[in-house]
Specification:
By secondary structure, this protein is of the alpha+beta class. It contains two helices and three strands.
Length: 88
């Protein structure tokens, strides 16, 4: 068991609500074991998102996965690299 950090709890809950509401994936990396445990307990009761720890060792992170992921808007997608588009 770890002590609760009010500031961390508020920030994590806000991020979880944002992830669930917007349908976006978020991740937090480079956290101590105790902080990851605080994050996982802080999001209990937040709907629309699942939070889990993934990876191993230094690559371990906390991932916020929305229940209903939203596709990226077309304007943020990269253009196709078709050679047919070039006029010579």
């Amino acid at each position: 068991t770890v002590e609760e950090d009010a500031a961390l709890k508020a920030a994590v809950r806000q991020l979880a609500e944002k992830s669930g509401g917007l349908g976006r994936f978020y991740a937090i990396a480079a956290m101590k074991l105790e902080d990851r445990a605080r994050v996982l307990t802080s999001v209990e009761g937040v709907g629309g998102v699942k939070v889990s720890a993934e990876g191993e060792g230094r690559n371990r992170r906390v991932v916020f996965t929305p229940d209903k992921p939203a596709p990226l808007p077309k304007r943020s997608m990269l253009p196709d690299d078709d050679e047919d588009d070039f006029d010579a």
